[in-house]
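Input sequence (205 aa), recorded before submission:
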Amino acid sequence: MNYLAHAVLSGDDPAWILGGFLGDHVRGGRWREYAPPVAAGILLHRRLDAWFDALPAVEALRPGFGSARRFAGILIDLGLDHVLARRWRVDGPVGTDLPGYAADCSALLFAHWELLPDSLRRFASYDRSTGQLAAYDRPEGIDRALRGIASRFRRPTPLLEGWRVLAPQMERIEALFDEVWPAAVDHADGLRAAMLERARTPREG
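Predicted structure, token format:
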């Protein structure tokens, strides 16, 4: 799952959503440097990734990418964000539209600029200038995202092919979304509830 899915699964608390964006950019124990609700969002992101990556249906999809299998995780994540964006009216948060939600996410990142690692600042700036998140519903938006990721590698990768390397697997990725998204929403809700309850429970000693 990529930025869009993690934002949605973080719920409606802006601090948790911010943590969802930070999840791929804050390494090791550095989550402890953030305020509790933001830290909780980072940990939620990690737990959701671990749960998702362990699903047999996800593992079964990887061989289909052939020579790009090394990058299957990235491709699947962006493919799922593409499905979510296209089906936003059904699967996005109730009462939102994709452009408005993406704009709110951008505003949230810039409102907490001082908390963002450089790598997330680069994404936030790129998103503001290109409307990247709001373009996830279109192949050209995913193509641009994949080529941007490819530019971070020192050597050429299959990601340079952008949408062309992902398109042949989109039917299977959409089927994966149908299978796992309801479970992901339920799992995220359960994790958030348990984490909130733990935070409210007084510790002895």
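Checked by second reader. The mean pLDDT is 94.
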